[in-house]
Write a structure and sequence with these properties.
Blueprint (H helix, E strand, L loop, with lengths): L1 H17 L16 H4 L21 H4 L2 H30 L18 H4 L2 H22 L35 H32 L3 H6 L1
Helix pairs in contact: 4-7
Length: 218
């Protein structure tokens, strides 16, 4: 059991690590960006809400230059998007277990055990698809490693705003800079909550082996 549990957790961790852009992937938009996207500093950074304001108790933003601050925000947005998908995946995956048309409805149990039950061939397809999406995000937002110094890894393009990779199929992105900041703040807040929720789901299921929905019903 311990070996199987370790294997399942490893697969889950691997998929999560590669899922950086699964929540938001598309070719980059062309054309002028809004005023909000052309500046980047801690003073006017979206995501601060009362009563906490700009919550940075360890002073990371204060110590960071603009390039580092952009990398922090890119990481936060990306992890938030993946976490929002993860929370939905936990709840939906456990709700339809045993009744889904996928994999002959053979996947069951807590969501953290599901990746280990997916046939190897399908796991490879999933990982390849996530890797491809992540590659496209890297091409959109990051400087080609051959064009930057070795001591400056993860450098973002000068005209790239963290998270703005052009995925907007419903055309929801507002043209007004103030409205855009509000939308960015909403996404950040939902992503932050989802990161806490996903971490809680993982920890709870790892501790007692019960699904999240099973906890709700017990």
């Amino acid at each position: 059991y311990t070996s199987l549990h370790t294997t399942n957790m490893f697969k889950l961790a691997l998929i999560s690590a590669l899922a950086g852009s699964a929540a938001a992937f598309a070719p980059a938009q062309t054309g002028a960006r809004s005023t909000s996207l052309n500046s980047f500093s801690a003073d006017d950074l979206p995501g601060a809400l009362a009563p906490m304001g700009f919550f940075d108790p360890l002073g990371f933003a204060e110590k960071a230059d603009e390039a580092t601050l952009k990398r922090y925000r890119e990481a936060e947005v990306t992890h938030g998007r993946v976490s929002m998908l993860a929370v939905i995946g936990f709840l939906v995956g456990e709700k339809v277990e045993g009744s889904s048309f996928l994999f002959d409805a053979s996947i069951s149990g807590p969501a953290i055990s599901h990746p280990g039950q997916v046939p190897v061939g399908y796991s490879a397809i999933i990982i390849a698809a996530i890797g491809f999406a992540e590659l496209q995000r890297a091409k959109t937002g990051f400087v080609d490693p051959s064009e930057t110094s070795f001591d400056n890894p993860g450098e973002l393009n000068a005209d790239y705003y963290p998270g703005d990779i052009g995925f907007d199929p419903l055309m929801l992105k507002p043209d007004d800079a103030e409205e855009l900041d509000i939308m960015i703040t909403k996404e950040l807040q939902n992503g932050r909550l989802a990161m806490l929720a996903a971490a809680g789901f993982l920890a709870q299921e790892a501790v007692d082996g019960k699904g999240i929905l099973e906890h709700f019903s017990s």
